[in-house]
Design a protein that fits this description.
single chain; alpha+beta; Maf protein; 3 domains; 5-stranded mixed beta sheet; 4-stranded antiparallel beta sheet; about 20% helix; about 30% strand
C-alpha cells in the first residue's frame, strides 16, 4: 500500500483510515505541525484562503513533513444553511495531493448534520439548557468572556462547566459555543468519514486519457427538455467531468427530460416558490471573543 500523510492535531485519522485503505493507501498522521496556525473555529485565527485552499495547503505540508509522495488535508466550516439561513450547516473538504505529479483531487460534503451552535448566557440554568441541546459532554463546549482573548475549550463534564460559570457570570454574560474540533465533536467526525468515502470514490475514477486518479464531475450542464412541452429548461442534461492532471474533459449524459415544475413555460417563475441558490461558505460566521 502507498503511504499518505495526514496533517492533523485533532485525531481525524480515525474517520479516514477505512476509506483510504480501501483504495490502496496506508494513512500516517503528522501531528508535529500546529494546524491552528492556518485556521481555527474559535475566532482566534481565521483562514486566509478558501476551504479548498486550506485543505490543499495542509495536504502539501503533510506530504513534505511526512516525506511521502501523497498528502491529505482536511478542512471544515460551519454556519447557517445556504438556502434560507435558518439551519446550522457543516461543509467538509478533503484534498489529496500527489507530490510527484503535482496535482490534487478533492472531495466535498455538506449538510445539516451538525450540532453547531453559539449563545450568550447570563445564568447557570440557561447554560445547562444550551449544553444539553449541544450534546455535552459527549460533544465539547467552549466558554469565553466578551472583550477577552482567552477562552476555555477542554471542559470534561458538567461540574467543570458550572465551576467556570460561577466564576465568570458575576462579571457579565458568558459566551458559549460548540467545540467544532474533530476530536471533540463526534457528529463532525461522521461528516468527515462521509467525505472520506467520497474521496475514495473519486480516487477510483481514472481519466481515460492519462489514467490518473480523480476524473470527477465538476459541473452540471443545463438544458434538459420539459417532459410536457419539450422546451429546454435549466435542469441538468449532463455532467461535466474533468481531469485535474491532464485537463481532459468529458460530458456524461443525465436524464434528457425534466418535470414540468422545472419549466419556465409550463410553470412560470412568478408562480414557483423562490429558493435561493446555494452559496459556498469558505469560513464560518464567527463572533469574536475579543
Amino acid at each position: 500500500m502507498e503511504k499518505i500523510t495526514l496533517l492533523t492535531k485533532h485525531r481525524k485519522a480515525a474517520a479516514l483510515c477505512s476509506a483510504l485503505s480501501g483504495c490502496g493507501f496506508k494513512l500516517c498522521s503528522e501531528t508535529g505541525f500546529d494546524t491552528d496556525q492556518l485556521s481555527t473555529f474559535s475566532g482566534a485565527r481565521s483562514g486566509a484562503t478558501s476551504l479548498r485552499g486550506t485543505a490543499l495547503q495542509k495536504a502539501k505540508l503533510g506530504a513534505e513533513l511526512g516525506n511521502t509522495r501523497y498528502g491529505l488535508g482536511s478542512e471544515g466550516s460551519f454556519g447557517l444553511d445556504p438556502f434560507i439561513e435558518l439551519t446550522p450547516w457543516n461543509t467538509e473538504v478533503l484534498a489529496w495531493w500527489d507530490r510527484v505529479e503535482q496535482y490534487a483531487v478533492y472531495a466535498f460534503v455538506q449538510g445539516p448534520e451538525t450540532n453547531f451552535n453559539r449563545k450568550f448566557v447570563d445564568s447557570v440554568e440557561e447554560a445547562e439548557r444550551f449544553v444539553t441541546q449541544c450534546k455535552f459532554p459527549a460533544h465539547g463546549v467552549i466558554i469565553g468572556k466578551p472583550g477577552e482573548v482567552d477562552y476555555y475549550q477542554d471542559l470534561a463534564n458538567t461540574e467543570q462547566m458550572k465551576d467556570m460559570l460561577v466564576r465568570l457570570l458575576p462579571q457579565s454574560a458568558v459566551w458559549l459555543e460548540t467545540d467544532m474540533r474533530a476530536h471533540r465533536n463526534p457528529t463532525r467526525m461522521r461528516m468527515i468519514e462521509r467525505c472520506a468515502r467520497r474521496l475514495a470514490m473519486n480516487l477510483r475514477s481514472a481519466c481515460q486519457v492519462c489514467s490518473k486518479a480523480g476524473f470527477v464531475a465538476v459541473a452540471q450542464i443545463p438544458g434538459a427538455v420539459c417532459e410536457s412541452c419539450g422546451a429546454k429548461t435549466a435542469a441538468a442534461r449532463a455532467e461535466l467531468f474533468n481531469c485535474l492532471s491532464c485537463g481532459h474533459e468529458e460530458e456524461r449524459k443525465l436524464s434528457s427530460l425534466a418535470p414540468a415544475s422545472r419549466c419556465d413555460h409550463c410553470t412560470p417563475v412568478k408562480r414557483r416558490p423562490r429558493i435561493s441558490a446555494p452559496r459556498r461558505r469558505d469560513s464560518p460566521r464567527v463572533l469574536p471573543l475579543r
